[in-house]
Amino acid sequence: MGLFRTLANKALQPFNYMLVKAGDQDRIASGTGYKYATRLNARLLPQLGYTVRRGAFAGARILNPRAAGPSPEHACKVLGQYELELHPALLAGLARRPGAFINVGMADGYYIACLKHLAPALPAIGYEINPASTALAEVTLEGIAGVEMRGGVTAESLTADLARHPDALLLVDIEGYERVLLDIPAGEMARASLVIELHDDLEPNITDRLTRHLAATHEVTILRQQGRDPFALEELDALPSYEKFLLLCEFRGPVQTWLQAVPKS
Description:
- The protein is an alpha/beta fold.
- The chain has helices at residues 2-12, 25-48, 74-78, 87-95, 110-118, 131-140, 155-164, 206-214, 241-247; strands spanning 101-104, 124-127, 147-150, 169-172, 193-197, 218-224, 257-263.
């Protein structure tokens, strides 16, 4: 089948058709949607702008005009819809007046920009192993004081951070490597507020393992991905319905969950 598919694709190329494996269809469809969303965000950038317009982080500048262009999630972020499930947890953590915000897996610096907008004096530490993402974060966070950027996280580095800032607010999104938290004694995290993106598909049973690990020191809640209503956003009124929904798509699997851990003491 491999040779046949290769020869057939060459023959079909002038007509912009191709044969794919059945298992590749979802991946190709997702990639096509992602590219379309990127182009759509670039088209709407003059209208939507560079700062959050709605919601908990309204007013935060999340894209530097010097950046190459917006991400596929830019409109979702600008309209206050991106990871909406986490906003109450992050605001609650901020209300505890943490000594620092530690973003493990900061990507382009979006959450650091948002929380520094709400609490400019709050020290922020951003871990990111991807050099391209770090470069984006440097542009996003240009001119924002009190931000320390680092590479990959380890249990030792996080333990040292918590020794300096025991009541820190931690946001962790590292694609299965959240298991690193299991290597930190729960007592070392007892005063910290945590919001952790869970990836049981990459790290089996990590939800249960982290829940048990934190049970003695924290009240644990599992947050579940919810739907969005693009028709409630007047900024999208002029768009066809499929573009409205695509702009609020976060390109996830079937259902995303997060763990919120609030200190008991």
